[in-house]
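Many introductory courses stop at the sequence. We go one step further.
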Amino acid sequence: MNYEDEAIREDVKEGATWLDIVIPDGWAHLIDASILRMESLNDCIFGQLFGSDLYDDILYSPGPEGIMWTQTHGFSVYGREFWLEEIEKRL
């Protein structure tokens, strides 16, 4: 695994931990892994859990915080395999 993959894995862990707090009853069982596509606003982790409108609100919030937050929490087009690992840990 290279440095970039390790950084993405850490970002995904941050996002999974955030989801553990936001959805304490469990979020992993709400994800349909068969349609998980990180490049889709509807089929990504965030889209499946909250819908694309909320994702758009965060992504396009004023200033750099929105897009940076999504990236540092693994909600980007990368990391599908790492999300699948985090989901598996929680099922």
